[in-house]
Amino acid sequence: MALERFISGRWRNAALILAAALVLSGGIAASFMMAIKERASLKPEDPRIEIRKSERTLTLFDGDRTLRTYRIGLGSQPVGDKEIEGDGRTPEGDFRIFVKNPNSRFFLSVGLNYPLPEDAHRGLRSGFISNEERDAIVEAHESRSAPPQKTALGGEIYIHGHGSGSDWTEGCIALEDDEMKELFDAVSVGTPVRILP
């Protein structure tokens, strides 16, 4: 009886507003929890990555289905294909992840198998690398192992964290840390990565 008088009195509007807020917040909370669950359960069966340098995007696919698109930062000279160590360019082509590094100085990282055989042949023709270095790069590609990372062609090209707000890397692809965590958990060694101009 006292509750009825309380609600029917001058506090009726406040009680209705409070009830509506609780219902709405429950809906918002449920939506938020569904979004968190969706992010936590991102486990593609057939993952692949496509990077569009001109658009500054990295898209994660499961087969042909788009799962996520992230904003990225690139090398300090983002236009053009990587040619030599220190040129600040992000390489273009078809790569694969050859290593996952949970202890990266850039939060988390996954390494790409750059340089590719075509880079090695170009490097040899240009006089940047030796026959032995070219052969080691080609052999690594054929055996699906890590190519030499310390040649005049450059190396150590990673997708990593620490921010996508600008083109600040030495040729790597940078994401925000929370997005890098999601990507890191979704991909495995061998995941294909296509980098387009």
**N-end to C-end Cα span:** 73 Å
Q: Please bin the fraction of helical residues.
A: 25-40%
Discrete helix count? 5
Inertia-based shape: globular
Throw out a few tags for this protein:
single chain, 197 residues, alpha+beta, L,D-transpeptidase catalytic domain-like, 2 domains, 35% helix, disordered N terminus
Task: Describe the 3D structure.
The chain has 197 residues and is of the alpha+beta class. It has two domains: 2-40; 47-114 and 154-196, L,D-transpeptidase catalytic domain-like. Helices cover 35% and strands 21% of the residues. It contains five helices and eight strands, in the order ααβββββααββαβ. It has an eight-stranded mixed β-sheet with strand order 3-2-1-8-4-5-6-7, covered by helices on one side.
How are the SSEs placed, and which strands pair?
Elements: H1 2-8, H2 12-40, E1 47-52, E2 57-62, E3 65-71, E4 93-101, E5 109-112, H3 117-126, H4 131-143, E6 158-160, E7 173-174, H5 177-186, E8 192-196
Parallel strand pairs: 1-8, 6-7
Antiparallel strand pairs: 1-2, 2-3, 4-5, 4-8, 5-6
Can you give me a brief rundown of this structure?
By secondary structure, the chain is α+β, with helices and mostly antiparallel strands.
